[in-house]
Amino acid sequence: MKSWIKAHPLIAFYLLAFAISWLGWGTQAAYARGWFPFDSFLFTLLGGTGPTLAAVMVLMLTEGKDSPRELFRALVKWSGAGWLAVALLSPLALALVAWALEPLLGGPQLALAAMPWGAMLGFLPMMFL
User: Could you tell me the CA-to-CA distances from 3 to 55, 64, 68, 97, 107 in Å, in that order?
Assistant: First the structure.
């Protein structure tokens, strides 16, 4: 298996990314249809971080166990507080724009308190990865 992944790293990455992501999302879909007994935020996290986990796994198998360090080096390299603010505030801004546009596009006007703020905060770790 390791030699096949070394010979086909891009195919291995895509297969692993889809498999890991859909392991999380598929479980949630099965729960929504009553085919799985419970749901957890961890399934959402697994689905969202599937490509990251796949990249780490393929890098470790093809380049060695220290290679993911290079992949994540950009995460700790600060390029300015402005870009950090953009990264952290963009999801909030997009949610507020969607909230404002909803009634203009024929949907109901939701109260700001009804917005899924907790779910949005839960997606922050996935956005960073």
Answer: 17, 13, 19, 49, 53
The tens digit of pLDDT for each residue in 52-65 reads 899 999 999 999 88
Cα–Cα nearest to 123, from 76, 91, 84, 89: 91
Is 103 a residue whose pLDDT tops 80? Answer: yes
The confidence band for 12, taking pLDDT boundaries of 50, 70 and 90, is: very high
DSSP 112: G
60 three-state secondary structure: helix
pTM as predicted: 0.65
The DSSP code for 128 is H
Residue 61 pLDDT: 92
Task: Report helix, strand or coil for 106.
Answer: coil
**What is the C-alpha to C-alpha distance for residues 26 and 19, in angstroms, rounded to an integer?**
10
The Cα angle at residue 56 between residues 60 and 14, in degrees rounded to 5: 110
The CA distance from 2 to 9, in Å, is 10
